[in-house]
Structure formats: structure tokens, C-alpha cells
Amino acid sequence: MAANAEWPLNRLLPLQFDPDQCRQSLDAFAALLATTQELDERAQVLPFFRRHPHLAAALGSYNVNLASPDRLAYELSLLGKFTADLVIGDATTQNFVFVEFEDGKATSVFRQRGRRTPHWSERFEQGYSQIIDWLQLLDNQRRTPEFEELFGAGSISIAALLVVGRQAALDPAEISLLRWRREKVVIDSKHVLCFTYDELLDDLRRRITVRSW
Prior knowledge:
By secondary structure, the chain is α+β, with helices and mostly antiparallel strands. It has helices spanning 19-35, 41-51, 53-58, 122-140, 145-151, 172-184, 197-210; strands at residues 13-14, 71-78, 82-90, 95-101, 110-111, 119-120, 157-163, 186-187, 190-195. Strand 2 and strand 3 form a beta hairpin.
């Protein structure tokens, strides 16, 4: 695929992961975050990740059993019921990561700033609930012909990731609450990993440094 070309939509396609292209794309992601205070999901986030498929594939590292990110899809229809913003897979081990992107704005994680008790925003709860719906659907549809046609297997191992908000918009108590939810809340034996865009950048930098693909 040509540089900066957008990956096709709604197709789980083979990818030969290139760590060097991933690192270059990570620099572009850092530049985007440094120069853009608020991110719109549709106008900025999704087009950026479609132009940088090797960076998108690196999100596969959030499934510890995903050895090689060799399958990638954007806006993938999940059995005609829902649409996943991004799906990364390993065709050999049948491990996958499903990603939901939301806006990266000041009120994307918490609303009514300045209150003693933070209130989760509608945007955050919408994205979180969307992932729960995906997990419930995929669990119910395992071993059906439609499931096997989509993923190439009757059962897959799933990790889920929600990316939302900006770190600078959160105070220390809100950051602590977001981390607690990421680390402690379990859905069907799975953590829904919740990161701001800035946390995702920092975490991917560490992962790409230490991980051998």
C-alpha cells in the first residue's frame, strides 16, 4: 500500500507488519497530538489511523497472546449488528484486539468539570457500552457459520481497547479513577482497557521499544 493511502473499510485483510513504518507513524501520531488540542473521532482520528496501518496494527500488542499482527480491519461490521472502529488479529493464534475510538476533547472522559465527584461523560459511557455489546454478540455467535466466515475460526480470544479524551484535561483524581477502571473492572473475564490518546502514545512508545515483533 502506498504511503498515506487509506486502508479499505469493512474488510479483515492480511498485513505484513513493518516495525520501521510503525515507528515513523508513531512520530506522526506524536506530532498530531502536539499540534491539535482536541481530536474529532470522524474527522481526525479514524482517517489518521487508516493512513497509518502499521501503527494501528501495533495496538494488537494489547492482547498478550497476539504474537504477530497480520490481520487488520477498519470499521468492520460485526455480523451485521455493530461496527468496530478497528480490529487487529493474528491468523495463526486467533487472537484479536477490538478498538473503539471516541473524541479526544476536554469533556470526553468526564463531564461537569470541577465537581468534587467526577461524572463519566456520555461519550465515554457510549464507547464503553459499545464494547460490551461487541463482547456479548461475539460470545453468543461463536461457532456459527457467519462467525467462522468473518474470523476464520469458530472461536477467538479477544482484548478490547477504548481510546478517548486527552490527558491534559484530567486532574490527578480523574486520572486515578480512569486507571482504576482500566485495571479493576472486568467484563466477561476481560478488562476493557481505557486510555486517553496521550496515554496511548506513551504506552506504545514503551511497547515498541521493548517488544520484538
